[in-house]
Amino acid sequence: MFSFKQFTIQQDRCAMKIGTDGVLLGAWTPIENNPFSILDIGAGTGVIALMLAQRSNAEQIDALEIDEEAYEQSVDNFENSPWRDRLFCFHAGLDEFVEEPEDEYDLIVSNPPFYTEDYKSENEQRDLARFVDAMPFEDLIEAAALLLSENGIFSVIIPFKEEELFLALAKEYELYPLKITRVKGTPITEIKRSLLALSRNENATIIIDELIIETSRHQYTPEYIELTKDFYLKM
Questions:
Q1: In 10 A of CB 192, how many CB atoms?
Q2: Which tens digits make up the pLDDT trace of 48-72?
Q3: DSSP assigned state of 18
Q4: Which residues contact 177 (CB under 8 A, 6 or more apart)?
Q5: Which of 11, 28, 83 is nearest to 50 (CA)?
Q6: pLDDT greater than 80 at residue 6
Q7: Helix, strand, coil shares of the chain as percentages rounded to 5?
Q8: Which residue among 91, 92, 134, 192 has its CA within the 20 to 30 Å range from the CA of 14?
Q9: H or E stretch including 204?
Q10: Would you say 200 and 228 are in contact if contact means Cβ atoms under 8 Å apart?
Q11: How distant, in Å, are the alpha carbons of 16, 41, 106 from that of 176?
Q12: pLDDT digits over 66-94, tens only?
């Protein structure tokens, strides 16, 4: 079990546990467009959808999860939250979901699987959650281009080494960056992750900045504390 300030996550049935990536995306994702409807693609525990329920006034927050155990767990986590009436999880793959799209979304978020290395574990459920072949970037971008409302925002967290490729693919679907934050574990480590927010409008000025998580073990930077303080109990 993982307790946040306003909600609790059960995660015993999910292959991918709560991690920094999901929390970063949930806390960082821009909501200045006051989204009415939100879609979380690949919900896992449901943490990102729950964080966005806490942060926004969105009346419709849908989540999509293909793995049955994770789907059931996210449903339970939604039901046990203060925002149960605004949250709904679909048990489906992205390909099924986009076949008959019923809604457009003002905000689409995803913490996609992205271990592209050639090894796999013996745990198929964990591999499905972690490996990019379960949901290739292009499929994700194509779905976002299809489902995003005219002034919507598409927000993801990916490995920094994949940033250039992801943005090039997004451009082919006429999705353009409006904000990029590159994440480092400490001041002396390499950039590890890219937080990307994209829209249908080609922006003359793109906000590009850097976020450092810790100065040393468990010594968090003021920027990271500011970003996550509404969620983590000890921030």
A1: 15
A2: 999 999 999 999 999 999 999 999 9
A3: -
A4: 167, 170, 196, 197, 198, 203, 206
A5: 83
A6: yes
A7: 35, 30, 40
A8: 192
A9: none
A10: no
A11: 29, 19, 15
A12: 999 999 999 999 999 999 999 999 999 89
